[in-house]
């Protein structure tokens, strides 16, 4: 099923009430695990509640509660026990700004005209998180990112680099945002071709400007992450754009939201690829004016 990698494992069954697999690794699995545990406790106490009715009520509460720790009180052991229902505030839709650390106070920061929608922020969330928790994505989200572990990890696991990254604390948790690949990804790609000493210098903040090393890293990011992920996005969009296939599995509304999300990921991948090509062209021009760079 064509869910983005942050949401579900490839090959999972998204329409099942509960799924197998590792429940702690993907957003959708975590959500299903939480729903299943809550349902089992409620069904034991009140066995005559239909499952569909419970799911409807569970979703109403889950999409309207706010996380908040009461001051001067010892936090409860489970994060989900530190949520509140806040009347009126739950009427607002989400935007990527507007959340404060001292509590939930709705104060206008600009003038509004009649008919304008007023937003609050649910927190610094990616569009994948918003899709699973609330069923929507933002067109412009400053906090958006997509994980790329499913592309990069197969090139690391079972190699000497895996242990090297594990010992240094850089194995896994790789992501791509509008700023490019994360620093952890830069570390992981350079571990594949730099000597151990030079790699440690990179982590320490030195050895950052060598054109040869930069181009090697960008080549690996392109071949190991951007190109296969782009093929995945194109394949998912092709499947979702086929009514005979997609609409037999998804209602029209959710299908359109998935298409929007995959198009965002596709655009991010193309933007990153274009940026690397531009950087490479600039570095090539600069290299003609500098001494040859040592190869690693």
Tell me about this structure.
By secondary structure, this protein is mainly α. It contains ten helices and seven strands. The strands form three sheets. A three-stranded antiparallel sheet has the order 5-6-7. A two-stranded antiparallel sheet has the order 1-2. Strand 6 and strand 7 (180-181) form a beta hairpin.
Features:
mainly alpha; disordered C terminus; 10 helices; globular; 6% strand
Gist of the model:
The protein has ten helices and seven strands.
End-to-end separation in angstroms reads 41 Å
Number of strands: 7
The overall average pLDDT, rounded, is 79
Order of helices and strands: HHEEEEHEHHEEHHHHH
Share in β-strands: 5-15%
Please, how many helices?
10
Helix percentage: 40-55%
Strand order of the largest sheet: 5-6-7
Give Rg in angstroms.
23 Å
Oligomer: single chain
What would you call the structural class? mainly alpha
- What is the 3D form? globular
Uncertain regions spanning at least 5 consecutive residues:
10-25, 284-296
Largest sheet: 3 strands, antiparallel
């Amino acid at each position: 099923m064509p869910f983005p990698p942050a949401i579900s494992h490839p090959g999972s069954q998204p329409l099942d009430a509960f799924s197998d697999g590792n429940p702690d690794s993907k957003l959708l699995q975590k959500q299903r695990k939480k729903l299943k545990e809550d349902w089992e406790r409620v069904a034991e106490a009140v066995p005559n509640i239909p499952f569909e009715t419970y799911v409807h009520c569970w979703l109403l509460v889950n999409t309207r509660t706010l996380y908040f720790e009461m001051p001067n009180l010892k936090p409860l052991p489970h994060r989900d026990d530190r949520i509140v229902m806040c009347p009126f505030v739950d009427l607002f839709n989400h935007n990527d700004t507007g959340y404060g650390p001292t509590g939930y106070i709705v104060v206008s920061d600009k003038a509004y005209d009649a008919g304008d929608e007023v937003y609050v922020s649910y927190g610094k969330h990616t569009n994948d998180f918003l899709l699973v928790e609330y069923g929507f994505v933002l067109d412009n989200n400053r906090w958006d990112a997509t994980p790329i572990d499913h592309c990069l990890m197969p090139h690391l696991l079972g190699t000497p680099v895996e242990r090297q990254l594990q010992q240094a604390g850089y194995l896994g948790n790789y992501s791509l945002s509008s700023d490019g690949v994360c620093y952890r990804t830069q570390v992981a790609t350079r571990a594949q071709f730099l000597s151990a000493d030079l790699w440690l210098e990179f982590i320490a903040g030195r050895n950052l400007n060598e054109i040869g090393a930069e181009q090697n890293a960008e080549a690996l990011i392109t071949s190991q992450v951007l190109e296969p992920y782009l093929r995945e996005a194109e394949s998912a969009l092709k499947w979702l754009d086929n009514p005979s296939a997609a609409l037999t599995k998804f209602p029209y509304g959710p299908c359109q939201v998935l298409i929007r999300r995959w198009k965002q990921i596709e655009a991010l991948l193309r933007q990153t690829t274009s940026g690397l090509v531009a950087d490479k062209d600039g570095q090539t021009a600069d290299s003609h004016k500098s001494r040859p760079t040592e190869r690693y």
